[in-house]
Specification:
The protein is α+β, with helices and mostly antiparallel strands and 295 residues long. It has two domains: 14-101, Phosphorylase Kinase, domain 1 (2-Layer Sandwich); 105-249, ATP-grasp fold, B domain (D-amino Acid Aminotransferase, Chain A, domain 1). Helix content is 31%, strand content 25%. It contains seven helices and 16 strands. The protein has helices spanning 52-66, 91-94, 119-128, 168-175, 177-200, 251-260, 273-291; strands spanning 14-17, 21-26, 29-34, 39-40, 43-44, 75-77, 98-101, 105-106, 109-116, 130-131, 134-135, 145-151, 154-155, 203-215, 218-222, 231-235. Strands 8, 9, 12, 13, 14, 15 and 16 form a seven-stranded antiparallel sheet that branches. A five-stranded antiparallel sheet has the order 1-2-3-7-6. The protein has a two-stranded antiparallel sheet with strand order 4-5. β2 and β3 (29-34) form a beta hairpin. α1 runs parallel beside α7 (273-291) and α4 (168-175) packs across α5. The protein is globular.
């Protein structure tokens, strides 16, 4: 497991420290803080990306509101004045990078939707002609748009471990038929609406990951949604099938790490200043394109 830097909020009740998010407990809900940490290949890197946490948090808030007609979500508020008293001494540090959320029970499957063939999906297709047990047409090129988006779930892994792609039949075994089919329906609907909106802003959402939870026997969205950490974002104006694409997300860092010769085992290497700055600027650009606002 990759060591993660200690949280600065050591007077609060830390429930869980993920690769990027720190979650604290309160009677009124959970406080989710999005840090500037960056993970790649399931390893938390030693350098932070300035303002990354603020961007991710605000993009999720934007999408939670945009998708409210499809499914509910765990967001209570981002208004610091409405936070429980124990969090208010940290208001300056929490500004724009935190949200108070409902206490939902996470569903034990991550819901991945692929609208284009890239990454591990492309590698699987090259090897076997299918992705997560779904057979695809012959002759596809890297980064091709798929005729219909694919629902390709995975198991959730602990920090430092790798998620494992599973078939829809395996998802039914884990969750039951009714819940699995509902998650598939919701995931595809969310992706379709998000992809259409992003395309109108000159962005292709190639694939993404949704996480759901149960609250009062209802399925709701939790964690993050359609961010550069959970999705592949490509600029529409440079899109060209048959190769890897220029990317707004952390693919730029992944590419540098691969070229550096790193063996993808912890600890991760230090990032050059220009890579850090480029990544920070890319995150900010995606937010501005989606919302029309600066961070």
């Amino acid at each position: 497991m990759t060591p993660i830097p200690q949280t600065e909020f050591d007077d609060l009740s830390l429930v869980r420290q993920g690769k990027v998010r720190d979650i604290f407990d309160s009677e009124d809900g959970l406080l989710m803080v999005t840090t500037d940490r960056l993970s790649a290949f399931d390893v938390v890197l030693p350098d932070i990306i300035p303002d990354k946490g603020k961007v991710l948090n605000q993009i999720s808030v934007f999408w939670f509101n945009h998708m409210a007609s499809i499914v509910g979500n765990h967001l209570i508020t981002t208004d610091l004045s409405q936070y429980p008293d124990e969090f208010k001494p940290h208001s300056q540090a929490l500004e724009k990078r935190s949200m108070l959320v409902k206490k939902a029970r996470p569903v034990a499957v991550e819901c991945i939707v692929r609208g284009y063939i890239s990454g591990s999906g492309w590698r699987s297709y090259l090897k076997d002609g299918h992705v997560c047990g779904i057979e695809l047409p012959k002759g596809l090129k890297e980064s091709d748009r798929l005729e219909s988006p694919l629902f390709t779930p995975s198991t959730k892994a602990e920090v430092g471990d790798h998620d494992i792609n599973i078939s829809f039949e395996q998802t039914i075994d884990i969750l039951g038929k009714e819940k699995a089919e509902k998650l598939k329906e919701l995931s595809l609907s969310l992706y379709q609406k998000g992809a259409e909106y992003a395309l109108s802003k000159g962005i292709i959402i190639a694939d993404t990951k949704f996480e759901f939870g149960m609250l009062d026997n209802e399925i709701i969205l939790i964690d993050e949604i359609l961010t550069p950490d959970s999705s592949r974002f490509w600029p529409l104006d440079t899109y060209e099938p048959g190769k890897g694409q220029k990317s707004f997300d952390k693919q730029y860092v992944r590419d540098w790490l691969v070229a550096s010769g790193w063996d993808k085992r912890p600890p991760g290497p230090r990032l050059p200043p220009d890579i850090i700055q480029h990544t920070s600027d890319s995150y900010k650009e995606i937010y501005k394109r989606l919302t029309g606002e600066d961070v």
